[in-house]
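anyone seen this seq b4? input:
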Amino acid sequence: MICDMPNKIGTATVFNLALYFMTNLRRTPGHFFIFYLFTFMCTLTISMYFRSIGALSRTLSQAMAPAAIFILALVIYTGFAIPTSYMHPWFRWLSYINPVSYGFSSLMINEFHDRKIPCSAAMFVPAGPTYLNITPEERICSTTVSTSWLGVDFLQTFETHFRLMHSQYIQRGLHISTFS
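predicted toks r here
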């Protein structure tokens, strides 16, 4: 584990710098370092899970089957592919024991908490002279994560949907992601 740390730090730094600025996330030092902290801690946590699977297996082929099922469950039940409220009740517990799910929730809070993205009349879909008489309920804003979505504040709906109402979940997510 200690021998892998320089490699993990270097890889995480290069990857996170490129990813963070390429995707145009919030350009503040606080938001960047929270992003870096959570992605790095998630990398370490998942690395230790896979090391545990490898330690319990005798051969590489024996380790690959449980590792494949494990990574599939981690990816599907993070809350991105299937939101938690849409999961079947008998599989929802997978998102509660998934450290990536808590990291994902914290990263969503970090990026979208207190953010307002305006939507102008030029961004409404459908647009054009034939659609001037339709009501706001029949339009949608084409801006990503805009604040106008069928007359409902999309960010408020998004935060409610992912149970991200308070920024205290960032600290909770760090503790659960790190110590699970």
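The chain has two domains: 1-112, 114-163. The longest strand covers residues 124-125. kinda curious what u guys think
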